[in-house]
Amino acid sequence: MASSILRRFIPRKTTWMYGQRMMSSTIDVSVDEQTGIALMKMKRKPVNSLNLEFLQDIRNTIVTLEQNKKCKGLILTSDVPKIFSAGIDILEMYQPNEERLHNFWRALQDMWLQLYMTPLATIAAINGHSPAGGCLISISCDYRIMAPNYTIGLNETLLGIVAPFWFKDAMCNTVGYRETEIALALGKLYSTDEALQKGLVDEVVTSEQIMEAAQRKMLEYVKIPNMARAMSKQLMRQETADKLCSTQDSDVQNFVNFCLQDKVQQSLGFYLEQLKKRKSK
Ligand SMILES: CCCCCCCC/C=C\C/C=C/C(=O)SCCNC(=O)CCNC(=O)[C@H](O)C(C)(C)COP(=O)(O)OP(=O)(O)OC[C@H]1O[C@@H](n2cnc3c(N)ncnc32)[C@H](O)[C@@H]1OP(=O)(O)O
């Protein structure tokens, strides 16, 4: 189902499969072949920030699961306490090597296209904070369940950067134009309750109940005839994905040019300093 464009790049082979278990240093995956449900736990300590290799691992895992005829649904969650994903690894953008910066952005695009358009049913079990790139992963799933007392949102402007158009499109498709406009301008991080109220997440349950709730909802999804469910997702999402597919190269170049600006580097350096200071308080 994912268009051939999405399969142009062969992902790195860093995920190992042992029967129904797949492992890499940053991801733990198990597949229940009875139910057809896979569980992917992100475990890149300390905060599941998305660097080049982690992005390739996530995409690689989705591709492998898509090829498993018994797998119909994927639950994404975190193995790191209190953090779903801290978003992009800021160190990929700060004082970067230019070639790696290109590859990094391409890997982010490819991971997103794979996740957003996968024919697998996807549920994000958001068991921790989920800013920026973490929010992107969440809103790219078909359904979101979040635990209380965490935050989620596209907070890029707080870092002195701007959410790419495809982050914006995915957000607009979830909460609507006006809410996205406000959220992006203010770099808004929603509390779990606000996120539920705005439709950024679909359900709130306690951390203890989140996996059970995700399994329950996933059983609803995988009961639907597979092709019909996957095609209805494609119907809703293809236009948004095509917008990036047709401009991937220029999007990489725009990102690299943007990142290399002195002003952007200063903002990122300042933000990293604040993160460290906050920790020492
Ligand atoms: C013409 C137009 C062109 C378009 C150009 C588009 C450009 C757009 C580019 C990019 C889009 C960006 C997307 C992103 O995802 S940016 C990342 C946003 N993420 C954040 O702001 C989160 C920051 N982190 C936090 O708020 C917190 O760390 C936390 C709430 C996630 C967890 O808090 P806590 O448990 O208290 O942990 P610490 O803060 O102590 O963190 C531990 C450790 O990890 C480091 N760290 C945290 N987040 C990141 C990160 N995203 N990247 C790298 N490192 C991170 C933190 O600094 C600590 O490090 P240590 O002191 O060395 O231990």
From TrEMBL:
Instruction: Share an example GO biological-process annotation for this protein.
Output: fatty acid beta-oxidation
Give the reactions, separated by semicolons, that this protein catalyses.
(3Z)-dodecenoyl-CoA = (2E)-dodecenoyl-CoA; (3Z)-octenoyl-CoA = (2E)-octenoyl-CoA; (2E)-tetradecenoyl-CoA = (3Z)-tetradecenoyl-CoA; (3Z)-decenoyl-CoA = (2E)-decenoyl-CoA
Q: What is its main location?
A: mitochondrion
Q: Which residues form a coiled coil?
A: none
Could you name the domain of life of the organism this protein comes from?
Eukaryota
Q: Which GO terms describe its cellular component?
A: mitochondrial matrix
Task: Spell out the PROSITE patterns in the cross-references.
Answer: ENOYL_COA_HYDRATASE
> What pathway does the annotation place this protein in?
Lipid metabolism; fatty acid beta-oxidation
Subcellular location per the Swiss-Prot or TrEMBL entry: Mitochondrion matrix
What CDD domains does the record point to?
A: crotonase-like (cd06558)
Which key words tag this protein in UniProt?
Acetylation, Fatty acid metabolism, Isomerase, Lipid metabolism, Mitochondrion, Transit peptide
Which SUPFAM superfamilies does the UniProt entry name for this protein? ClpP/crotonase
Extract the GO molecular function terms from the UniProt entry.
delta(3)-delta(2)-enoyl-CoA isomerase activity
- Its quaternary structure? Homotrimer.
Function, as annotated:
Key enzyme of fatty acid beta-oxidation. Able to isomerize both 3-cis (3Z) and 3-trans (3E) double bonds into the 2-trans (2E) form in a range of enoyl-CoA species, with a preference for (3Z)-enoyl-CoAs over (3E)-enoyl-CoAs. The catalytic efficiency of this enzyme is not affected by the fatty acyl chain length.
Its family?
Belongs to the enoyl-CoA hydratase/isomerase family.
This chain belongs to which protein, by name? Enoyl-CoA delta isomerase 1, mitochondrial
Q: Where does this protein come from, organism-wise? A: Mytilus galloprovincialis
